[in-house]
Design goal:
The chain is of the alpha+beta class. It folds into three domains: 6-115, Alpha-Beta Complex (Dipeptide-binding Protein, domain 1), CATH 3.90.76; 122-165 and 443-470, no CATH class; 213-433, Dipeptide-binding Protein, Domain 3 (Dipeptide-binding Protein, domain 3, Roll), CATH 3.10.105.10. Helices cover 35% and strands 18% of the residues. Helix 9 runs antiparallel to helix 12 and helix 16 (391-403) runs antiparallel to helix 17 (408-416).
Length: 472
């Protein structure tokens, strides 16, 4: 980075496109991935109106540029929002990929799984709808084991990785219990209790998801009640967070999860260190909620709809909010939509009143304030929208952009100054986040409960077949 907003990237040599046994694989011919592939892929994301980049960060997409500046070098220029641009265009933001040029040129897209060709450790060789996805080892993978006794070994270790598609939870749990699955993720507390109670050999890791659920609201429409901070604070006070934690999640949850939870330790500040006025918003107080509603001009409450995707679990959770809020006169109707319809509405932020959705909470995403600024699809409450509309948030955002590459402590301080303000403004109503579990059998080696990223850890797994046979 010769200067903020200019990124000179050296492309790793020796990374080859997979020799998949398909027409697409033969088209690529196992050639080396190069700088031209990176430039092509960047522009494909930048120019496609349907790309995640264009939809989520249109300004970044429009203003940024890339050029090949050497045989194995590209230079990316991001004149606006340096940190946000870095996350989306250099870091990748979970969506940027290097695509096989010849395959995209011939087939137009990669929608057909048979046209999948990558550079990673596993090759997709079979997909059976509603049944399974099968991958095999890429023998030409460039990566090696980085640490431990196997340091320097070529990976992946396993020859075949099969992902079974089993929608029914009880069947998935049975598959783990009987050893058909080697590991299983996203297990809730009750199922963890059952599995580990009857299978003492199972190993596990508990963690808190980086996608907390919140209720956002239309603050862009002056005719709706949500512009008034007293209404939003009343919603907080009418929510019994302790009851949700203890009754809905058996005590295995945390309410102090927004705007960031304790697992993002560099940015987290506990609720106990917040001003008393902020702490009080997390204490169930329906009488005070009624008083605030009356002061806001809603002595008899109001009616509102909450949009949610069709999921029995999410509808049940919203039903708890609905019952609690009814005690202060807020009459909620739950608007259940099929997932595809819900996603379209959420993407456009066109929900009628409120929306129940998850928010990404990784370290990097938090630092570009996706739920607190501009037209981001995650900004369901229209906070600081248009950007600059909320001077307090905007100043912290600009400080983040200024200091993140030059003075990290100042950048962290700017972020931490947001929490008391954001919570007191009650832009979002957070749902306590339950602890989740990853469980695996001891014959799965190099497993420590990893779960973030794009599955990179799978290449380090190996099966101790002797132990598996000994355990029956």
């Amino acid at each position: 980075m010769p200067e903020p907003g200019v990124w000179v990237l050296q492309i790793r040599q020796g990374v080859r496109w997979q020799k998949v046994n398909s027409d697409a694989g033969r088209l690529m011919g196992g050639r080396e991935m190069n700088a031209d592939d990176v430039v092509f892929s960047f522009k494909r994301q930048q120019d496609s109106p349907n790309s995640w980049l264009v939809a989520s960060q249109p300004r970044v997409a429009k203003e940024s540029s890339i050029e090949k500046t050497g045989a194995w070098e590209v230079t990316i220029r991001t004149p606006v929002d340096h940190w946000t641009s870095f996350l989306w265009l250099v870091h990748g933001a979970g969506s940027f990929r290097v695509y096989p040029r010849e395959v995209v040129t011939k087939y137009g897209n990669l929608a057909d799984w048979r046209n999948q060709v990558g550079t990673g450790p596993f090759m997709l060789i079979d997909y059976v709808p509603d049944s399974s996805i099968t991958y095999v080892k890429n023998p030409d993978s460039w990566e090696t084991d980085l640490v431990g006794p196997g340091k320097g070994n070529k990976v992946p270790y396993i020859d075949t990785f099969k992902q079974l598609i089993i929608p029914d939870l009880s069947t998935r749990l049975a598959a783990l219990r009987t050893g058909r699955f080697d590991f299983l993720t996203d297990i809730v507390y009750e199922d963890w209790q059952s599995l580990t109670g009857t299978n003492k050999d199972l190993q596990y890791l508990s963690y808190m998801t980086n996608q907390p659920w919140v209720i956002g609201m239309r603050r862009d429409d002056p005719a709706k009640p949500f512009n008034n901070v007293k209404v939003r604070q009343a919603l907080m006070l009418a929510t019994d967070f302790e009851s949700i934690k203890n009754d809905l999640f058996k005590g295995q949850a945390d309410a102090d999860i927004y705007p960031v939870n304790e697992q993002v330790s560099a940015l987290f500040q506990p609720l106990s260190e917040m001003p008393q006025a902020v702490q009080d918003l997390f204490k169930y107080n329906p009488d005070r909620a009624k008083q605030l509603l009356e002061e806001a001009g809603y002595p008899n409450g109001f009616k509102a709809s909450i949009l949610v995707a069709n999921s029995a679990e999410r509808v049940d959770e919203l039903s708890v909010f609905k019952q609690m809020w009814s005690q202060v006169g807020i009459d909620v109707s739950i608007d259940v939509r099929e997932p595809a319809v819900f996603t379209g509405i959420a993407f456009a932020r066109s929900h009628q009143d409120m929306i129940y959705r998850s928010m990404f909470q990784t370290f990097s995403i938090q630092l570009f304030l996706s739920g607190l600024r501009g037209t981001s699809t995650f900004n369901s409450s229209y906070v600081n929208d248009p950007a600059g509309n909320d001077p307090y948030i905007e100043q912290r955002y600009q400080d983040l952009q200024t200091y993140i590459f030059t003075d990290t402590p100042k950048a962290y301080k700017a972020y931490q100054e947001l929490k008391p303000y954001v919570l007191e403004q009650a832009f979002y109503i957070p749902r306590p986040t339950p602890f989740t579990y990853t469980i695996w059998w001891p014959w799965l080696k190099n497993s420590y409960g990893q779960g973030l990223g794009q599955g990179e850890w799978l290449q380090y797994y190996w099966i101790d077949q002797d132990l598996k046979r000994a355990m029956g």
